[in-house]
Predict the 3D structure of the following.
Amino acid sequence: MSAPRDDAGAGKPGGMNRRQLLRHGAWFGAAVVLTVAGGEVISHVGGDPAAAAGDPNALRFVQLSDSHIGFHGPANLDVTGSFSRAINQVNALDLNPDFVMHTGDLTHLSSPAQFDQVRQMLGGLRTGKVFVVPGEHDSVDDHGQKYRAAFGAGSRGDGWYSFDVKGVHVIALVNTLALEKLGHLGVDQLDFIQRDVAGLSSDTPIVVFSHIPLFAMYPTWGWGTDDATQALSYLRRFSSVTCLNGHVHQLFSKTEGNVTFHSATTTAYPLPHPGQGPAPVPLTLPAGQLGDALGIRDVTYQPGQHALAVRDRKLA
Amino acid sequence: MTRIGRVRRRPGKIGPDKGHTMRQSWSWVLPRMVFLLVSIAMGAGVLAGCATTSNTAPSADTANAQPAQAATGTTGTTGMAGMAGMAVPPPGPGAASPDAPVATDTVAIQNFAYSPATVTVKVGSTVTWTNQDQDQHTVTAMNNGPFHSAPLNTGESYRYTFTAPGHFDYLCTIHPFMTATVVVTP
């Protein structure tokens, strides 16, 4: 792991100056409060969606994931219907999201018909902008060519990109091509990340989207990214980094240093918890329980806070 | 669980590499404290789920009702023990049949695995893979290798004739945790 280029923290053993440290401490020293109410989980690591409700400068976005359009199996006999419900649920939220991000596995088998269908469905979202990153199911036979034809406009390399919105810098990564069990970013994309953040103030909140987790959630099942440590080293100087992923079809959160990771659930079908069973194969739940395993996520960032409030809701 | 101590000593990926200063240790300890809380809060649900019978769904209810309790009452040890399970996974039952090579030109794809996981054939042999799962799978060589199937539906087969000796690792691009090997001997 090479050291990040960190002018602000140059010469300091921890790569962090006093001001950053104080802020860092203030952020991480705050109590982590989870609110569970009405099927929602809210992780406040400093942020509060309710407090931000009337703030026009607050950033609000929605994460959808793993719609697997084209999946046919007992684990979900109608993934299209489930995704449609998720879209309706997003449209019914009272938070007018600045954007919606789909974190991959839009389709199940990357067929042109599946891409066409999911693209049309995403068009039904009432939001400022829809973004996507690919999952491995979106490139099963062509290294992502059909994916990029459908969704790659404005992206670089194999489909990665970044943008700024309301003071937050958003990076969307592709770690599902060049797969060898684990997710992989590759040299070109690592260079992109390093250059992309080079000019940013360390105060800038960073949000990173990827399909496969950037942390080692369960490498035995490929639930990790083999060169993520390098990518995260470029983000070490930032006081707030939030990584949001899909792929694992279940909620999970953890903090490592300055980075908080949140795995999202799916709109399609659940997968087992890590190590529960021989392989991450679709779980068929007893009748009536599927909706509890599926869901959507909304995220709020209020200027002045150093963390994002992440709220997961069951599929309505 | 006996892994608790091990995980406590395990450095985080983003941790400092060298000696600790006071300043460093704060930037180090605080996140770890939160790591604890978060692992209790969110992770405990997953772990609690792990401890229960199989086929428990990761529902929003089960995944998070327990964290709320854990955050108020449970000690950090539980959370760390839980993370130990995450960080140092035991080999799954699927990994139990090791990669002992089998001399055969027929590979079944069943229960999200290639069986046998390693086959040995002579140059010029044709290997046949048949998908016996409900879900689709592919047979795709890694490292830009020479063979790659289309997605195989239930009952469909893919054949490839090996014309050069070598060690060919492959995976399913749809389920990349499925990996296996063909060894081609002269």
